[in-house]
Amino acid sequence: MTRITKEELLEKLFHDNYEDLKGKKLRMTRVRVPGKEVCLAHVISPSDSCIYENLGLHIGVHDGEDHRGESIGFIRFTPWEAVVVAADVAVKAADVQIGFMDRFCGTLILTGGLSQVQTAVEEVVRFFDEVLGFQTCKVHKS
User: Fold this and answer.
1) What does DSSP say about strands 37-44 and 140-141: parallel, antiparallel, or unpaired?
2) Model-level pTM?
3) How far, in Å, CA of 140 to CA of 142, rounded?
4) Does domain 37-141 have CATH number 3.30.70.1710?
5) Closest CA to 49 of 68, 72, 74
6) Residue 52 pLDDT level (bands cut at 50, 70, 90)
7) List of residues 6+ apart from 97 with CB closer than 8 A
């Protein structure tokens, strides 16, 4: 997908009336129509404890557990409810914990060992691509 300038976009949208609209105030509203898409899949290898703490992943664990320093997997979906299926696929594919799941925004954060998180994220992306027919992105790792 190539990027276009604001001027090019306006010209494409209002091609017949573009010359008449030049210089006038226009109000544009961007609307996102949820499709079937995995738009972010990223694995952070063993993270610094400050990342865990700023994401709030260090709270709500059982007494004595400390997951700081583990790897983190982020996956983002539309439609947002797909995150529930993704969480199920992830925990069945590898020994990972759900750090955060938001069915209203489509965000899933997984925690665990690097190879386990990588396996879970890859399996979720594969499942959504091959089984559910979603548009998917590549899994990135940092």
Assistant:
1) parallel
2) 0.72
3) 7
4) yes
5) 68
6) confident
7) 67, 110, 111, 112
Domain boundaries defined on the chain: 37-141
The DSSP secondary structure of 51-88, one letter per residue, reads: HHHHHTTTSSPPTT---TTSEEEEEEEESTTHHHHHHH
**Cis before 79? omega within 30:** yes
Q: What is the pLDDT of residues 67-98, one digit of tens each?
A: 667 899 999 998 988 999 999 999 999 999 99
The two three-digit tokens of residue 77, written as one number? 């979906």
* Euclidean distance between CA atoms 47 and 112, whole angstroms: 11
Give one DSSP letter per residue of 105-126, joined into a string: TTEEEEEE-HHHHHHHHHHHHH
Residues β-bridged to residue 33: none
Letter for the amino acid at 63? D
Query: Distance from first CA to last CA of the chain, Å, rounded?
Result: 24
Chain position carrying tokens 């090019």: 8
**How does residue 65 score in pLDDT terms, banded at 50, 70 and 90?**
low
Tokens 């499709």 — which residue?
A: 35
